[in-house]
Automatic annotation (TrEMBL):
It comes from Kribbella yunnanensis. The keyword Chloroplast does not apply. It comes from the Bacteria. The keyword Phosphoprotein does not apply. One of its GO terms (molecular function) is isomerase activity. Pfam families: DSBA. Keywords: Isomerase. InterPro entries: DSBA-like_thioredoxin_dom (IPR001853), Thioredoxin-like_sf (IPR036249). Residues 4-177 form the DSBA-like thioredoxin domain. This is Dithiol-disulfide isomerase.
Amino acid sequence: MNAIQVWSDLLCPFAHVAIHRLREAREELGIDVRLDHHTFALELFNGPHPRPGTDSEAVGLGQVAPEVGFRLWSQPDWAYPSTVLLAAEAVHAAKEQGLRESEELDHALRKAFWFESRSIGHRQVILDVATEVGIDSTALAAALDDGRARATMMADHAVAVTDAIQGSPQFVLPDGSSVHNPGISVRWEGPFAEGYPIAQNVDPGWAERLLKQAA
């Protein structure tokens, strides 16, 4: 079965939109292509996740992708996940159970953060989310506790700092071609995290074309 590599950060609103649209198009087309998740860890470039920037991007993208259902963080500020490296590690570790399990965990973690304001950087939250989508959380806990996927995640970062990956999200196809943040363009009015992102849909057919090319 062919797979599309997905390079992204779990707290990236653009990645959330793009992955949602790719999964929806895959279901509509009935194309059997897996998503192979890789980590583009924004916090390893920029430090702890800046909530104002993430919130602003979500509000801006919510206007062009209302079907994704963004929700602003509704829990106490101290519960906001300033790091999601352990969650990204869990997505890698879940590949021991299969690409489908890894993909579903990634999807469920994004939903838990964006829809339910759950602190997905926390070990127990990660395991709870895994259980909810039918993943063997006992096996996943063992993988997290011995750190077996950490080197794989950091190997992704070694690739992410090169010119091979432009940012989150980026999709790499089996033929080696890739596309960064497809379907949406954005500009900022004012400084990042202080101003406002102006986003627009520019290519509604990108997901269908990408899936057909991958298949």
